[in-house]
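Could you please consider the sequence and fold appended to this message?
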Amino acid sequence: MTTHKVIKTDKAPNPVGPYNQAIAATGQMLFVSGQIAIDTTTNKIVCSDDISEQTEKVMANLEAILTEAKATWLSVVKTTVYLKNMDDFTIVNNVYAKYFNSEKAPARSCVEVSRLPKDVLVEIDCIAVI
């Protein structure tokens, strides 16, 4: 039987729908919901037209959730990046690369989507081993 624990922190945005920030499953796997560039102090989107700033905020939100679950970037085994425009791939990749050692970087998928919540430019989710 699989057990799970809800992971929640006020240092990352509250979910905008019927889901949690993250779920720790069977005490080993952490599934972090997709994060967007919401500033928790204002509850507003950061830099609606700046993909670099949005990506930095997304990564900060992911890190807050990882920290709450006692995980680090080294714990992450898989990410999925959702982009509104694939032309932003290089910029997002440059920000993303600051958080992962290239030799131990997680598996990753990156897809272009027609629209993201709150009309943001990027959303990232991850899976970690804790």
